[in-house]
Amino acid sequence: MNRCRAMNCLGLVLTLVGLASTMTGCETNAATGRPQYLRYNRDEEIQLGSEATPELTKEYGGKVANPELQAYVTGIGQRLSQQTEADNPTLPWEFTLLDSDVINAFALPGGKVFFSRGLAEKMTNEAQMAAVLGHEIGHVTGKHTNARIGKQVATVGTAAILGGIIGASVTKDRTTGAAVGAGAGAAAGSVFALSYSREDELEADRLGMRYMERLGYDPRGAIQVQEILGRESGGKAPPEMLSTHPASSTRVAELEKRYKKYYAEKAASMTYSFYEDRFRAQFLAKLPAKKQTRATTAREMLAGAAMRGEGGSISLGDPSRWCWHCAAEAEASPSR
C-alpha cells in the first residue's frame, strides 16, 4: 500500500510539474542567449507596463517639470535602447525623470524606465546615468520580470509538492506531515527563487555595460554607480545569502572583472568618455531644489499595479533592494 501511495504521489508531482511548464512559452532570449519560460508575450508586456506607468509616476512625485531635463534623460535612454538586440529597439521605450528625493531607478515590462532625481543628484558624470539606464534597459531586454513570474510559480509550487510528499512519508500523521513538509518545501523553493533575482541583477549589470560601451561611454561608469550605492547604503545591506540582490561590493567585483576582460584592451586603442562637463552644465546645473519627501515603503509601492503583478518599486537607498520586480520577495523575506 505504501509503495502504491508513493507512486501515486510521484505521478501527481510529475503531472503538476508538466502543467506548470505549459503555463509559459519557452524561447531563447536574444540579449542573453539563454532559454526562458515566459508568462507574457510582447504585446502583453507592453500593455502591463503602460497600465502601471501612470500610478507609479504619481507615487514618485510625478515627472520633473523641467522639459530640458526630461529630454536629457530621454535622449540617453533612447540612444541606449537602440543598441539592444533583436526587435527590442522597436519597443515603445519611455524614460521618465521622477521628482523624488528617494534614490531609485526601475523598469516595467515593455520598455518603461524610471530614474529619480534623488539618484541623479548623487552622480558626477553622464556615464553613470547611462549605466543606470542601461541596467534598467537590461531588465527589460532580459525579460527578467516576465521569466521570474513563471519561474517562481514552478519552483515554489514544485518544492511545496515534494516537501509534502516527504513530510507524509516520514511522519505517522500523514496530514500533519504533508502540511509541514509542504511549508518547508515552499520556503526552500522561495530561497532558491531568490537566487534568480541576484543573477538577474548581475545580468542587467552586464547588459547595461554592453549597451553603454557601444555608445562610447566609459564602462567604468557602471562600477562608479555601485560605489555610489554602496556609500549611500551605509553598509546596512542585508545578508547576501537571503538578499534579493547581490551586495554592491559583489557587483563592483563582477563589473571590474568584466571590464578587464572585455573593455580594458579596447580602452587602450579608443577613447571612452564620462562626459563630466556636459553632465554638470546640461543636467546638474538645471536640477530643481530638493523637496522634502519621505521614502515610500515597499509595501506601499506594491499596492495597486504591483499587487496585480503589473509593476511596483522600492527604494534604492538600500542597494540590495534595487529593482521593482523583486519587491514582493524583499517585503516578505523573514530577514526584513
**Helix/strand order:** HEEHHEEEHHHHHHHHH
* Major sheet: 3 strands, mixed
Domains counted in the coordinates: how many? 1
Helix content: 55-70%
User: How many DSSP-defined strands?
Assistant: 5
End-to-end gap: 45 Å
**Poorly predicted ranges (pLDDT <50, ≥5 residues)?**
1-23, 158-171, 186-196, 293-336
Largest beta sheet: strand ordering = 3-5-4
* Global structural class: mainly alpha
Mean pLDDT: 76
- What fraction strand? 5-15%
Which terms would index this structure?
336 residues, mainly alpha, 12 helices, 5 strands, globular, disordered C terminus
Element layout with pairings:
Elements: H1 2-21, E1 25-28, E2 35-38, H2 42-59, H3 67-81, E3 94-98, E4 105-108, E5 112-116, H4 117-120, H5 126-141, H6 144-170, H7 174-214, H8 220-233, H9 248-269, H10 276-282, H11 298-301, H12 327-332
Parallel strand pairs: 3-5
Antiparallel strand pairs: 1-2, 4-5
Q: Can you describe this structure?
A:
- The protein has 336 residues and is mainly alpha-helical.
- The chain has one domain (37-160, 195-332).
- It has helices spanning 2-21, 42-59, 67-81, 117-120, 126-141, 144-170, 174-214, 220-233, 248-269, 276-282, 298-301, 327-332; strands spanning 25-28, 35-38, 94-98, 105-108, 112-116.
- Strand 1 (25-28) and strand 2 (35-38) form a beta hairpin.
- The radius of gyration is 22 Å and the shape is globular.
- The N and C termini lie far apart (45 Å).
